[in-house]
Design goal:
- The protein has 236 residues and is α/β, with parallel strands linked by helices.
- It has one domain: 3-Layer(aba) Sandwich (Rossmann fold), CATH 3.40.50.150.
- 42% of the residues lie in helices and 22% in strands.
- It has nine helices and seven strands, in the order E-H-E-H-E-E-H-E-H-H-H-E-H-H-H-E.
- It has helices at 26-31, 46-63, 102-111, 126-135, 138-141, 152-161, 177-186, 194-209, 212-225, and strands spanning 16-20, 38-43, 70-74, 87-93, 113-124, 164-172, 228-235.
- The protein is globular and about 45 Å long.
């Protein structure tokens, strides 16, 4: 499930891209399709990093992507092990809502980003996220869960306060919002519930097959129910 519009990134050859909080590599796999870019993924979760590295290896073997343009490493977003202005583009997708010191994390992302570089940040959108919190306290109380909900205007003000210009905002994954509401209603760990299993199979089918009807439906619903809000920003 890719949240950032990778195809819309207008980066030059030999650009260096950081995926900060890469998880199991959902964006890395898309970024790695561009053989002229160098891609770095960082995360604190060693299991997720292993899975990301393995999935990149599998994708390279299947599609013949280059082996030397993408790698992953363990690192803390609040203390990135990179020089100032090392990256042409930084992606931070569904991460800031987990971090107590989100201002510090944002400052680190900007430190390693080149002037006029692109910073792309996505977080859960306020309305769908608030419903999850109302239905299930366990949704945000479990270890490593979401510790805050961002309102669009507040996050935009926070980003502007760090001196970065927002040039586009969009919304993604409207069809995923009801899935999380359903999980909150039947129990977050209750993967065996028949409704959860059916909806999950539908989402997996949709991600793999990308049928025109559901792609059109989600496009229409995203402005209303999109689970994620994505900010496309530029460092001044």
């Amino acid at each position: 499930m890719v949240t950032v519009d990778i195809s819309g990134l207008k980066l030059k050859a030999q650009s260096v891209v950081l995926d900060a909080g890469c998880g199991t590599g959902r964006h890395l796999r898309e970024l790695a399709k561009n053989p002229d870019w160098k891609i770095v993924g960082i995360d604190k979760n060693e299991k997720d990093l292993f899975d990301a590295g393995q999935s990149l290896k599998d994708v390279r073997e299947i599609f013949g992507y280059p082996n030397n343009n993408c790698y992953v490493m363990k690192a803390d977003i609040n203390k990135l092990p990179f020089a100032d202005e090392a990256f042409d583009c930084v992606i931070c997708s569904e991460v800031l809502e987990h971090i107590p010191q989100h201002h510090d994390a944002l400052q680190e992302l900007l430190r390693v980003l080149k002037p006029q570089g692109d910073l792309i940040i996505s977080v859960p959108r306020y309305f769908p996220e608030r419903i999850c919190w109302l239905i299930s306290p366990a949704y945000h109380n479990e270890e490593g869960g979401h510790i805050r909900i961002y309102k669009k205007k507040h996050l935009r003000r926070m980003l502007a306060g760090h001196g970065i210009e927002c040039w586009k905002i969009n919304y993604k994954h409207a069809l995923h919002a009801p899935y999380w509401w359903l999980k909150c209603m039947v129990g977050l760990k209750n993967e065996a519930h028949w409704l959860v299993k059916c909806y999950k199979r539908f989402l997996e089918w949709d991600i793999m097959q990308k049928p025109f009807l559901t792609r059109m439906l989600e496009g229409l619903l995203n402005p209303l129910l999109g689970k994620s809000i994505v900010f496309y920003l530029r460092k001044g």
